[in-house]
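> tool_call: predict_assembly(chains=two)
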Amino acid sequence: MTRQVDMSHGAGGRAMARLIDDLFRAALDNPALARGHDAALLDLPPGRVVMSTDSFVISPLFFPGGDIGSLAVHGTVNDIAMGGGVPQALTAGFILEEGFPLADLERIVASMAKAARAAGVSIVSGDTKVVERGKGDGVFINTTGIGVVPDGVTIDPAQAQVGDAVLVSGTLGDHGVAIMASREGLEFGTDLTSDAASLNHMVAAMLRVAPDMRVLRDPTRGGLAAAVNEIAQASGVGIELDEATLPLRPEVRGACELLGLDPLNVANEGKLLAICPPARAEALLQVMQADPLGRDAAIIGRVIDDPRCFVRMRTGLGGARMVDWIAGEQLPRIC
Amino acid sequence: MKYVEEFRDPALAKGLSDAIARAADPDRTYRFMEFCGGHTHAIARFGLEDLLPGNIRMIHGPGCPVCVLPVARVDAAIALATQHDVILCTYGDLMRVPGSGFRSLTKARAAGADIRMVYSVMDALALARAHPDREVVFFAIGFETTTPPTAVAILQAAKEGLTNFSVHCNHVLTPAAMRAILAGGDTEIDGFVGPSHVSAVIGTGPYVEFTRDHAKPVVITGFEPLDVLQAVLQLVRQVNEGRIEVENEYARAVSDAGNLVAQQMMARVFTLRDRFEWRGLGWVDHSALRLTDAFASFDAERRFALELPTPTENKACACGDVLRGVKTPVECALYGDPCTPENPLGACMVSSEGACAADWTYGRFRREAAS
């Protein structure tokens, strides 16, 4: 019989202790976790501390290019990196549904461990709760992370200035389309995989050549459109994009045509948007393109003066249009 | 992407744009209605307004399935979902269309009704197979494009002997709507950009009759930007030369006879309603379909008795005028404040094919100059 999560795994007794020891502590092995305290004690390098939290409820749990475990690491590592921080430690909270196969949980935790190692960050504290069958959807994961921002670096969505260059690190919409393609009821054949990845190493390289970079953002839910609009609002500026320069995979373009979606509204999990002074743009682009995660990086637009904070785009045909937040319901549970 | 990028070629677009500018007589204006919401969306999304001279005005037509659905039919959808414990299946856009008293399917679902967004009527059929103990109702909307798939589903359900599947039919007819717009007499139109997918089903014949009766040129064209520009060029030439013809720019998909198999299936399953209510156009004779008596058991309208509220529309909402091309979206008092795609008060602000949503989402930066 397949071993499954049962209520005792969250009850505080021996079963829970064994689950923590055998599964979590073994896979996520690090000194802070090994100590077995209620709280992790950390020695941090000097600098300002950034902190971020994110919960993951994606369906399906395993998708081409990743799973909920790796996604939960990438998501929070990226949020810290977008604040200019070097990620130091993560915590992980699991809400498990009664009956969830332990083999799947093992796979997810192993995937988290691998993602954390690649990002160079430890998972130093965790929590497990079990809910009755029917009250969860297999597993939900929350991760919270802290990072340290090096002196001299200030990344802030309110810092975009007229004339600044807008860059993106690669092809847009891969994650959202890969998830949709793997979801029941929406089957369309594609070899596309999610772009989910931790971007902190690329950000570190970017900050070395452009410590005066002004804004970083990972365009996750709501896609690039939401990210650029948030920046325009926060900075009180307009942004103009060039459609012809947007990196897009043909499969993503095709899927979006079929489903009636705008790729600019589709989620990414391994891409970032950077805004920097115009003189810095070329150097930054080169550093991004030198990173495997930034091969398709491009300069896609500029910051313009517009008190209405509109984002507009020169279309491929030479016309113009707005780029707006998506309205209403998004396709559910993509992260 | 093959067969798409070719129709978005910037150099060809520039060539067409220049040709239109040369052909257009600067001493007159041209008012062309694009009937389909798909065209409205393409014009806004690709910024085609910028490629047309100022004296060519595109008037947005009523070819948006959820936009033309009157409040009473939205109320019926909500009542079906809330009064009969059915699984109600519908296309996504309909979820947020406001019915009477600001109710919507989205709100009904939040309150516990079992409403499923489907991408195809076949998904609804699959749900009926998977839930033999539940009644599954497909709320069918759309013009002649979405009608054949509904017919296929009903034929399939009959073949399989499914007794828990039915269709609430709101399928409407394009030529009848085009006639109704002109009969209203309050819209000035010099020519029509004819539908793409609808025409692939019905062919060019119905427009030949239409041009003969109403003396307006029609150019049937595809949804890609070059298609739209080419259609505008052909309309300008027809107007300049005093010709009133049906021209088929979309010959790669539309034949004169249309899709005969689809037409036969539609004729088997559906029959003309005497009249149907449209948002904006009011009651229009012979403008919509219902299930034939032979398929009465699949007709949700006959199967489920509904208690419906007296339909109430927001009086300030100008959707009706927008759908007839009498008003532009910005001429509605509600446009942008408080009516936006996040908070739609009228159907035209809901669907991406709706004229108001297209203008708000893609075009509103034009409406007021940046100071």
